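ESCALATION

Customer reports they have been waiting on this structure for their group meeting. Please prioritize. Original submission:
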Amino acid sequence: MSGRTPIPAEINNHNFEALYRKEPHARTRIRYLCMSHIQAGKSFSEIAQMLKVSRETVRMWVKRFAEEGLTGLSERPGRGAKQDYRLKMNLSSKRLLKPCKPPASRTRRWACNRSRYSRLTPDALLCCLHP
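Update from on-call: job pushed to the front of the queue and completed.
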């Protein structure tokens, strides 16, 4: 088996320049542009240099196109961004905390009983401070 990735015959069945112009997603547009250059007969190294990606990336795009067709060039869903814990806690603290009320008599100091929520942000606990 040779080390070269074979170029699929069905690559000539598509007009990648037209697809490139219609596509709104930038990453998919770059992949269509790559396929357009392959149709023009350019090497993987030349394409990689023009698009500022590695040869391995170009090879992977061609392989995915051969296996899955045009859908293989679309952006795949990733794992997603990790949710910001501080934002999550801030949103939940707004639901948990209500404004603290001082005691009826002004003679004794008061403290908020919500300090048991140790994972709340300092901003959420500001309502508990003595005025």
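Sent to customer with the following note: The CA atoms of residues 99 and 127 lie 6 Å apart.
Escalation resolved.
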